[in-house]
Structure formats: structure tokens, C-alpha cells
């Protein structure tokens, strides 16, 4: 698999024309981004709890990324652990769960810290769409150990993640637990994102193509926002803050106003 640096070289020339808004009906494939070699999403396997509660969620997301952008994606995820040297070949790492899990070892934390500082992105997703439950407690415990001086904070509405491809005003998911996204800021990057709304549960389809879960209370509009955020997260992982320099800030403020 190629590293984030490869994707940067291939993607940056075409990002200036990427769409900022998603129409009410899902649009046809964008031609704003040039084709690249295959992008694969890595999912983190960890000890304890349930690391894979939505096994088909990332499949649906990768298909959406391929359909809505010009990023060529591999449908099947790559499962990695924090002991796997192959971790560093993937710019995007997805972690999900719905139960508490065993504390990461110091060695595992050091590996994850190095991965994030070297340019990787970790998206953590509470699969159940709950607040203040065991998975959330485990996440906050280990993230506090990961960056003791960089706590999880609510991301501002004008953060680059909300405009790396689509202009996002609402954080979707299977449940509207929080109207915001949390993250860890390191310099000008936010290499760690945390959503408690159950993104994967909103993305997942069964083998017949039916949605596995109903989104509450916003229905399909809420599911659409979950997909938009997933697409934005992938593009953010590949381009970091490049879009921040491309977007006319007063225009964005007017749109968010």
C-alpha cells in the first residue's frame, strides 16, 4: 500500500475544484480529483471488548468514497494491530467498538503515537451511538495516556474536517448523541478524531444491500451526513490542511452563519 505522501503528490493538484456542498439528491461521481492508486482503509484490532461490531461498515464507506470522489478505493479493509509494522503503510486508521476494552500497553501507545505524529489519522467511532458508556470510558482513558498534554476537545464548526470535501454543518450517525466531533490537535493537524454518534452503524448494509440500522431521529438525512463525514475524514487523511488554504474563509463563514 502507498503512504500518505504518495497520495498527497497525486491528489493535491486537483483538489482546488472539489465541491463544497452536497445537493439534496446524492450527486454523480465527482471528476474534481485525479485518479490515484488504490486507497485501502485499515481497521484496528485490539484486545478485549468487541473491535468489529459492524463488519460491513467500512465496505459501504469505501464504495461511497470511490463513487463520490476520484479516489480509487479497495473495498475490503485491512485489519491491523498496533504490533503490526504494516500499520505505517496506511494513512487512515479506523477504530470502533461498543464495549470497554483492555488498556493499551505502553508499547502499543508508543506505536500509535508515532503513527499519528508521522502523518497518520485515527478515526474512533462509538459503534452503538451511546454517551458515557464503557467504550467511551476506555477511549478517554487511553487517549489521555496517548497525549497527556493534548486532551480531546470539541472541534470548531470551521475546522478543516468539515470542509475537506463536503461542507458539513451536522455530525451524522445512527444516533445524534453529540452535535459535534472531538479531536486531538497537534500543531496545525488533528490526527485523532472521535465520534460518538455511531458512524459505522449508519454506513453498514447487509449482504442484500439493505441498511442494517435505522438512524434516529433524523432518518436518511442523518445517514447522509454520516457518509459525508466519512468521506471528509478520508480526504482529510490524504490532504491534511491543504483545503484550508484553498477555501475563501469569509464565504465559509457566510455559509455557516
Structural commentary:
By secondary structure, the protein is an alpha/beta fold. It has one domain: Domain of unknown function DUF4159 (Rossmann fold, 3-Layer(aba) Sandwich). 33% of the residues lie in helices and 12% in strands. It is built from 8 helices and 7 strands. A 7-stranded mixed beta sheet has the order 2-1-3-4-7-6-5. Strand 6 and strand 7 form a beta hairpin. Helix 2 crosses helix 6. InterPro entries: DUF4159, TAT_signal. Keywords: Signal. This is DUF4159 domain-containing protein.
Strand order of the largest sheet: 2-1-3-4-7-6-5
Helix content: 25-40%
Q: Report the major sheet.
A: 7 strands, mixed
User: What is the tally of helical segments?
Assistant: 8
N- to C-terminal distance: 41 Å
Write the CATH architecture name: 3-Layer(aba) Sandwich
- Approximately what portion of the residues adopt beta-strand conformation? 5-15%
Offer a quick outline of the entry.
The chain has 257 residues and is α/β, with parallel strands linked by helices.
Characteristics of this structure?
257 residues; Rossmann fold; 8 helices; disordered C terminus; TAT_signal; signal; DUF4159; DUF4159 domain-containing protein
Topology, element by element:
Layout: H1 4-11, E1 42-44, H2 57-68, E2 78-80, E3 92-97, H3 106-117, E4 121-126, H4 134-146, E5 153-154, E6 182-186, E7 189-195, H5 199-203, H6 219-239, H7 242-246, H8 249-256
Parallel strand pairs: 1-2, 1-3, 3-4, 4-7
Antiparallel strand pairs: 5-6, 6-7
Helix pairs in contact: 2-6
Amino acid at each position: 500500500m502507498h503512504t500518505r505522501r504518495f497520495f498527497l503528490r497525486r491528489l493535491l493538484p486537483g483538489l482546488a475544484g472539489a465541491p463544497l456542498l452536497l445537493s439534496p439528491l446524492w450527486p454523480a461521481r465527482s471528476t474534481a480529483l485525479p485518479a490515484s492508486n488504490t486507497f485501502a482503509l485499515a481497521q484496528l484490532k485490539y484486545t478485549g471488548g468487541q473491535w468489529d461490531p459492524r463488519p460491513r461498515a467500512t465496505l459501504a464507506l469505501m464504495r461511497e468514497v470511490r463513487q463520490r470522489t476520484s479516489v480509487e478505493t479497495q473495498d475490503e479493509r485491512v485489519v491491523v494491530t498496533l504490533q503490526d509494522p504494516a500499520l505505517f503503510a496506511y494513512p487512515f486508521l479506523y477504530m470502533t467498538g461498543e464495549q470497554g476494552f483492555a488498556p493499551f500497553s505502553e508499547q502499543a501507545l508508543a506505536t500509535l503515537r508515532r503513527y499519528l505524529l508521522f502523518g497518520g489519522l485515527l478515526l474512533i467511532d462509538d459503534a452503538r451511538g451511546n454517551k458515557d458508556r464503557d467504550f467511551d470510558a476506555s477511549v478517554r482513558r487511553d487517549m489521555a495516556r496517548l497525549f497527556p498534554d493534548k486532551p480531546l476537545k470539541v472541534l470548531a464548526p470551521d475546522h478543516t474536517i468539515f470542509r475537506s470535501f463536503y461542507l458539513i454543518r451536522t455530525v451524522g450517525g445512527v444516533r445524534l448523541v453529540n452535535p459535534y466531533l472531538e479531536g486531538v490537535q497537534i500543531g496545525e493537524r488533528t490526527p485523532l478524531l472521535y465520534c460518538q454518534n455511531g458512524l459505522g452503524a449508519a454506513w453498514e448494509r447487509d449482504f442484500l444491500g439493505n441498511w442494517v440500522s435505522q438512524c434516529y431521529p433524523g432518518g436518511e438525512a442523518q445517514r447522509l451526513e454520516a457518509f459525508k463525514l466519512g468521506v471528509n475524514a478520508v480526504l482529510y487523511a490524504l490532504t491534511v490542511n491543504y483545503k484550508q488554504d484553498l477555501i475563501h474563509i469569509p464565504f465559509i463563514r457566510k455559509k455557516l452563519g
